[in-house]
Specification:
The chain is mainly alpha-helical. About 50% of the residues lie in helices and about 10% in strands. The protein has two domains: about 15-185, no CATH class; about 195-330. The chain has helices spanning about 5-10, 25-40, 65-75, 80-90, 110, 120-135, 165-180, 195-205, 215-225, 230-250, 260-270, 275-295, 310-330, and strands at about 50, 65, 100, 105, 140-145, 150-155, 185, 190-195. The strands form four sheets. Strands 1-2 form a two-stranded antiparallel ribbon. The longest helix is centred in the C-terminal third of the chain and has 21 residues, at about 310-330. It is elongated. The two termini are about 30 Å apart.
Length: about 325
């Protein structure tokens, strides 16, 4: 697509990107994309095949992708793909898997199949593996002697990323967008989570500039962890954000002030003279403090209550992040550009 959209996107009927599971349709699209990249030689530099009968040396002309080398490497770096295939198909022999010298060799058609869907973490590992090994051949030529086949050549690499990775990144992200998938393949060729809609603007504009470098670092780290595709990192993000909240309360420390006085001054500055609003803000501070102490966020004793699911983690993160962002802006401690 020239502009990366379809008609439904342009009239506001595209799917919201909130799904955190790779759907069957999305997996089929990924498989089709990967197969095209294999067929077009995008993985030929990383996994070269030398099958030209006129190549006297046998290793000077790349004719395509060595699919077995590709699959062997893929299963070595993403071993859960095999486990998913066995579990999803219930076939202990995995479609007539060949045994060679007591080593199992899996076929690409079996592992990159459309009849089953791996778990989301495994599917995203496959995306990252392909992204890191993709490179567009700089030249393709058809060799018609002794059977039609192509010859591929690659230029020397510059300091930038190999050509073709940007195209793969765009294709994956377009596919994710069309299917409402809340993940994106970033320029670092790592898959990151797209935060829930209600907090995206908070995160994108969250650049604390307080007089406390440690607080700045805690808050920034929490934001990075929250957009991780790993749920356990997002739970770490909530813990770090609550730690940051407790440190935030000390920003108005003076020569002889205690934490309670610091919080009071912080609330005064953030309420702009409105007593009713200050009361609401103070109540929110107290409620969030209680939540941090009650649930397994800041403390992990047996008496703590565990958050029920990832949705609860998101909700509490959004709630606290919004308050922190507001207070930082109200007191002139948030970068504006």
């Amino acid at each position: 697509m020239a502009d990366g959209t379809f008609y439904s996107d342009r009239i506001g009927r595209g799917k919201p990107r909130v799904a955190e599971e790779i759907s069957h349709a999305t997996w089929r699209g990924l498989v089709a994309l990967i197969r095209r990249y294999v067929g077009d030689g995008y993985l030929a530099r990383a996994f070269p095949a030398y099958d030209c009968p006129d190549d006297r040396t046998g290793h000077s002309v790349i004719t395509g992708v060595d699919e077995q080398a590709f699959v062997d490497s893929l299963t070595a770096y993403v071993p859960d793909l095999v486990s998913c295939a066995l579990e999803c198909t219930g076939d202990d022999d995995l479609f007539g898997m060949e045994i060679r010298s007591s080593v199992k060799h899996f076929r690409m058609a079996d592992l990159l199949a459309t009849g089953w869907v791996p778990d989301t973490a495994t599917a995203l590992d496959v995306v990252e593996f392909i992204a890191h090994h993709t490179e567009d051949p700089t030249h393709r030529s058809l060799h018609t002697w002794n059977g039609d086949h192509h010859h591929y050549s690659f230029s020397g690499r510059s300091h930038g990323r190999p050509k073709g990775q940007g195209e793969f990144q765009s294709s994956v992200n377009f596919l994710f967008a069309r299917n409402g998938i809340a993940f994106t393949l970033d320029d670092d060729l790592q898959v990151h989570r797209i935060a829930p809609p209600e907090v995206r603007s908070v995160i994108s504009e969250f650049r604390p500039e307080t007089e406390d470098p440690e607080l700045n670092a805690k808050l920034a780290d929490a934001m990075v962890r929250f957009i991780s595709r790993h749920p356990e990192h997002r739970r770490d993000a909530v813990e770090k954000l609550w730690d940051g909240f407790e440190r935030l309360k000390t920003l108005e420390f003076g020569a002889s002030k205690d934490k309670k006085t610091s919080v009071s001054e912080l609330l005064d500055k953030s309420s702009f003279g409105s007593v009713p609003y200050r009361d609401e803000l103070e109540a929110e501070f107290k409620k969030l403090t209680d939540i941090g102490n009650k649930f397994g966020i800041r403390h992990h004793e047996h008496s703590q209550v565990t958050l029920p699911n990832d949705a609860a983690v998101d909700y509490l993160f959004v709630r606290l992040a919004s308050v922190i962002a507001y207070v930082l802006r109200a007191t002139g401690r948030m970068a504006t550009s």
